[in-house]
Amino acid sequence: MTKTISAIALFAATIAFAGAQSTSQSEWPVYGGQPAQDHYSPLARINRTNVKNLQVAWTYDTGEKGVFQPSPIIVGSVLYSYTPSQKVIALDATTGKLLWKFDSGIAGTQPARALAYWSDGTSARILAGVMNYLYALDAKTGQPIPSFGENGRVDLREGLGRDPATVSIALTSPGIVYKDLIIVGGRDPETLPCPPGDIRAYDVRTGALRWSFHTIPHPGEYGYDSWPKDAWKRSGAANNWAGMALDAKRGIVYVPTGSAAFDFYGGDRLGDDLFANTLLALDADTGKRLWHFQAVRHDLWDRDFPSPPALVTVEHQGEKIDAVAQTTKQGWIYLFNRVDGQPVFPVEYKRYPASTVPGEVTAAMQPLPTMPAPYARQALTEDMLTRRTPQAHAWAVKEFRTFRSAGQFVPFSLDKPTIVFPGYDGGAEWGGPAVDPDTGIIYVNANEMAWLGGLEENKSSGASGSGLYQQQCSICHGDDRRGSPPAFPSLVDIGKSLTIDQTRDTIRQGKGRMPSFPAFSDEQLDALIRYLQTGHDDKTELKSESGSSTETEKYNFTGYRKFLDPDGYPAIAPPWGTLSAIDLNTGKYVWKIPFGEYPELAAKGMKNTGSENYGGPVVTAGGLLFIGATNFDKQMHAYDKATGKLLWRATLPFSGNATPATYEVNGRQYVVIAAGGKDPRLPIGGVYVAFALPK
User: In this structure, is residue 414 part of a structural domain?
Assistant: First the structure.
């Protein structure tokens, strides 16, 4: 359904839209600023000299709470974005006044990071993902366009070689527009069953499928022999959840992909598993592969490419090179010639240990760039443990000696936990980097957290509630249901906080980082909920055919677990988050600083520790780097892009875990960010805050 629009609001929307027919340098019309995904703006009205005078220009409170990570797009004087429940909104970009709101009637439970905009010069439409649907909305009114797909939407569950009713997919990052195409990926589950991560292009006018690229190759396609026979029928993921970049002049779309399902045990997908963990360069007109680079062969560590790549021109060894830069969770940056895929800096293949888990065969070698140096530490040693207090240090040392910590690409074992550092959330994450096209400097914010991982033999039957839990839920909530709060909540005593119906809805629809699980039969879901409520299986096992919709792995992941001290702080020494500036012409660092604080520790004198951070930076011709991102201090920051000096900051109503946008209307420059909060221990909301200089 759609929200009723008043005559006054519709008139205001029409007037605002009149200036939104063509994009210019004053706008922010694409996720990441422009298709190159460089997060760069040529605006300079706000600069090093006057940024200290920034003040709040307007706010818009969505009145909702939930996962809130959108980066708005701005065309003309209209700002388009989402609410936490994935309602699509259009605001007056100078006042924050609501122009229209589209409510699909679907309660969005997944992250929604941006929209896409298309115009032929006479009409324009917003292309919006709402869970598993891609909608085309009239940019002027917010009404669905009936001629697109079926009544204004395309169901992304269809056409993946699976029963659509059992498929979980959500468009969390926006598609990218090229000519009359909208090219999309999608977020898939990290356990089986799971759809393949096909990259698909739809006609922006009709919603018809124009081309599809199989990231798990079909017979006769390049890379088919890097998987077991007919793996595309059973394996899943290798999907683009992070977004894409586009070289519109050359007609090349750059698509980073994630790991294959199941993430942490690959005995059923032996081989390198192309095109998982791969940067793909595709012909944007046809979907034909032009070149590729696989950064992690046979991934067992959830080392997705976490963000869209950024396009930049660098000068290297006296030659100008049109390049594509890709950040990683590991803390590395890969830089390639964007035409032929040749690395700008050498990539070396190094040997790593074999797996000791029966049935697993790890890749013998993995590729590492020789430059730039990593922006996150690569191995955790005992001398790097926390010294926040003597007690915390003693605890960390005792625990650390029970782990295996040997750096990158160490396969998980069955005997003891393995340190993953940087952790599953990076290094870099989905916010993406910013690149200054004038200097070739890339700006990357990163996490430096240690996590644990391990495998255990799956002794549960898929024909029981506990077996279903181990197959589908333990990857996040642990084999003991205790999770790793706050990111992965405990499910022990879940009946005290959620009713049976609420639990059922959450499993069916997903929530936040949790995908939906439509493949469960009603009988399976009832059995799983009984197990979650009681911690025990019902005496009556499920019928064998009831388990046919879920896959049974030989080994379970023991769960995502941060290495935290007893007080809930990182059990390693700071920095726990960083912000780096790296010259891509030379591969050398310009500056690097801790990024973020814990307010309660800062009050006790423990400042500049860095903290976890989500959401990327924006760089401008005014000499500034704008970024929110930090989880706990709720700060919006402006840094001198040349030195890393903090020039201005403001406290947001909630942490700004999103990438900001900057734009200009009527000669006034604005910087806007979505503030919603991330840590469930702290207040959450859904507010847009725009800053500008005083009039």
Answer: no
pLDDT higher than threshold 90 for residue 561: yes
Q: How far is 89 from 100, CA to CA, in rounded Å?
A: 6
- pLDDT, one tens digit per residue, over 316-369 is 999 999 999 999 999 999 999 999 999 999 999 999 999 999 999 999 999 999
Q: Could you tell me which residues are beta bridge partners of residue 615?
A: none
In a domain, residue 291? The reply is: yes
Pairing of strands 555-557, 455-457: antiparallel
**pLDDT over 60 at 401, yes or no:** yes
CB 128 within 8 A of CB 481: no
Residue 474's alpha-carbon distances to 355, 518, 561, in angstroms, are: 22, 17, 11
Same structural domain for residues 155 and 223? yes
Q: How far apart are CA 108 and CA 86, in angstroms?
A: 5
Q: Ramachandran region of residue 326, left (φ > 0), alpha (ψ -120 to 50) or beta? A: beta
The residue whose two tokens read 């605001």 is 91
- Domain total of the chain: 2
Contact of 473 with 460, CB cutoff 8 Å: no
At 35, which amino acid appears?
P
Cα–Cα distance, 33 to 76 (Å, whole number): 14
| Domain encompassing residue 26 | 7-378+421-449+574-692
Question: Are both 536 and 582 inside the same structural domain?
Answer: no
**CATH code: domain of residue 642:** 2.140.10.10
Alpha-helical regions (H) of 189-330: none
Same domain, yes or no, for 538 and 603?
Answer: no
> CA angle, corner 593, sides to 589 and 599, nearest 5?
165
Give the rounded percent of residues in the chain with a pLDDT score beyond 90.
79
Average pLDDT, the chain: 91
**Residue 392 maps to a domain:** no
